[in-house]
Automatic annotation (TrEMBL):
Gene Ontology, cellular component aspect: nucleolus
Keyword Methyltransferase: yes
Record: active site: C354
Domain of life, per lineage: Eukaryota
Binding site for S-adenosyl-L-methionine: C231, A232, A233, P234, G235, N236, K237, D255, D282, D302
Lineage of origin: Eukaryota, Metazoa, Chordata, Craniata, Vertebrata
Name used for this protein in its record: Probable 28S rRNA (cytosine-C(5))-methyltransferase
Biased composition annotated in UniProt, kind: Basic residues: 466-482
Domain SAM-dependent MTase RsmB/NOP-type: residue ranges: 123-416
Alphabetical UniProt keywords: Methyltransferase, RNA-binding, S-adenosyl-L-methionine, Transferase
Pfam families: Methyltr_RsmB-F (PF01189), NSUN5_fdxn-like (PF21148), NSUN5_N (PF21153)
Amino acid sequence: MALYIKAAEILEKAELKKGAVKTLVYESKFQNIKQLFALVCETQKYSSVLREIIDSTKLLKETKLRIHLAKVLVYDLLIGHGVKCGGAWKMMMLKHRSRLQAALARIKVKRKVSRNQDLLPSSFQQTQDVIPRYVRVNTLKTTLDDVIDYLKRERFSYQGTASRLENLDCLSGKTFLCDLHLQDLLVFSAKTDFHNHFLYKAGHIILQDKASCLPAFLLNPRVGSNVIDACAAPGNKTSHLAAIMKNKGKLFAFDLDAKRLSTMSTLLLRAGVTCHQLANQDFLKVDPQSSEYKEVEYVLLDPSCSGSGMVCLRDEVSEPQDDRRLQALATFQLRCLNHALQFPQVQRVVYSTCSIHSQENEEVVSACLQQNPGFRLVHLLPNWPERGHEPFTQCLRASTAKTRTHGFFVAMLERRPWQTDEENLPIVTTLQSGGEEKQDTHQSGPSDEEQENTETAINQLTNPSSKKKRKRNRKPPKKQEP
Ligand SMILES: C[S@@+](CC[C@H](N)C(=O)[O-])C[C@H]1O[C@@H](n2cnc3c(N)ncnc32)[C@H](O)[C@@H]1O
């Protein structure tokens, strides 16, 4: 019930231009921001159709509901997931359901369309159609082949592995593909809904946007290693990390929000994750020197961000961004990234956001590299079509237009091999310290020239008069196995 009340409040304020939906949702302090956000955005998109349905059925007069609450409830009843709250409202909506359904059907006949989404203004239709439904196979519970076989038995039609991005645009009905970049990721047409499917309910598949699968895939922690997921809830990336680690090793997951963490705990249980240790803790207060984390080699940092890459916000993106909010987020993100690099054995840190703003992306990475000369960027997925803004082309960006995903940014920092002026120590491969050796097939290290270009560009950005100068790591080298 609280969800609908909050959604109606925000919808009203947004329509009265009292603020952007995104800001209003964040300020609401509602526990499940994502759910609230999705409900408000979707209701707003269908606003004119909902008004038509409500007017033609005289729903306000019959129920004494206020218009914004009525819109939210009618949206969820007819187009969304069905009214979930119990009690009086559900009863009331069910009582009027057939009249409301008939009104919706009449509008479709009048406009000569068969699907709900065809009723949306054309700008929304385009956005909706270009992001396919991505399904990550949870290899802790099943295999890619088993999922494909299961789906084929349900008359889904498997088309093999995509070879070009455009293949994804041709998906329709029950056809599906394997993704062209990420293993264990299946791609279906945008309209495919798995929320009630057995494989989803049993935790065999995870519904996760492709861009959001990049951080764990790129971090690629060694089986048996110690890993931190710094801002983890609701845990899609945590379960992905656990799958890559084959549930071996230790996965420390932190989040400030107790409610999100409790949802996460349920989701991890469903996904069969066992190598994790959840803590309702501020990551910035986690002590890197604690003996508990002395073997941590990998950190995944996916901190709170503006969310401007989420497609549902596209109408918001055109609105001027609140610069102070972005600055506050960037300051927090940089503190988290700097903190992640303090763990004594950390070799790789993946930093990601679902923001399209360079303040939260390249600028955070740039400041961090300035402050931590012992780390450098890793050149990620050479074949990925969208790169970080110059000069941070080692990083990845994602967008609906170029990658058929939500807007996203990923950077990976790695510890530099120790070098001193005094000793000419051999460069060590950072990820082979014991345990099983792993091939990194999906990324290649940056050339020295590329690395140097970035450093020069950073120096020039922050100090235009600086000369091209390669920083040296002055810390005494730690002895490592060759
Ligand atoms: C973008 S979401 C993380 C999504 C998550 N990585 C996933 O894939 O499911 C950011 C999370 O950071 C948490 N958070 C914000 N500040 C934090 C802090 N100082 N320490 C730990 N978690 C924090 C928020 O509660 C939120 O759950």
